Amino acid sequence: MPAPDEDLALLEGAARAAGRIALDFWRQDPKAWDKADDAGPVTEADLAVNEELHARLTGARPGYGWLSEESEADSSRLDAEHCFIIDPIDGTRAFIAGQEGFSHSLAVARGDRIVAAVVFLPVSGRCYTAFGEGPALLNGEPIAPTDRGVSGASVLTYRAVSEPGHWKDGRVPDFRREFRPSLAWRLCLAAEGRFDAALSLRAAWEWDIAAGSLIAERAGAAVSDRYGRRMRFNSQRGMVDGLIVAGPRLHGELLAALDDPGLRPAG
């Protein structure tokens, strides 16, 4: 059975290959269309990258399951000890617009835990990696989150998070809201301390956050769903109930400020 560092090497090579394919389409007016059920846009580049990743990764690890945004659901992954969790292009709208902030998000889950992860931004060459109990790295250098409280913190999130109804007694914390198009990258930006936190109160697809969650955790961030619970992956639903990713102090303050814990679901 391959060790997590061996899986990491496989993921990094695959991510860089994905980047070469994506850049062949980037700013070249790729064909794009909307997926069914308001699931967002997709381009011919997403599908080309997905095809390359599927062939490369499952060819190297034929016993691993497969969960990808751009593949048909395959329930056999639920019985696999290991599963690839992949977003071929995270930030497709940014990709279509010719912006630089899209990424490739690749992870391996063992059971319900992520054990190897890569988030790669091909335009800038930023490559975030982590495996098992190893460090989180950006282009080979260790990263770490900030250590600050909520007042004045820079939080990567969307506008609706600032609505009073999400917060105890309607008191929205005094943080500064920022945004980046790739959710996977947002987790990594919090992990490296360029921003103080990444926050989402909406359910998130596993392929968007699997890789970034391990990178943030190994960097020293506190990582949970929006209710403070440990994230679990390769689930039947394929989603996580939001996310809070930040240094331990800020994570605790955000969690404490959110709406009544009595409203949290069991589990």
TrEMBL record:
<keyword id="KW-0460">Magnesium</keyword>
<dbReference type="InterPro" id="IPR000760">
    <property type="entry name" value="Inositol_monophosphatase-like"/>
</dbReference>
<keyword id="KW-0479">Metal-binding</keyword>
<dbReference type="InterPro" id="IPR020550">
    <property type="entry name" value="Inositol_monophosphatase_CS"/>
</dbReference>
<comment type="similarity">
    <text>Belongs to the inositol monophosphatase superfamily.</text>
</comment>
<dbReference type="Pfam" id="PF00459">
    <property type="entry name" value="Inositol_P"/>
</dbReference>
<protein>
    <submittedName>
        <fullName>3'(2'),5'-bisphosphate nucleotidase CysQ</fullName>
    </submittedName>
</protein>
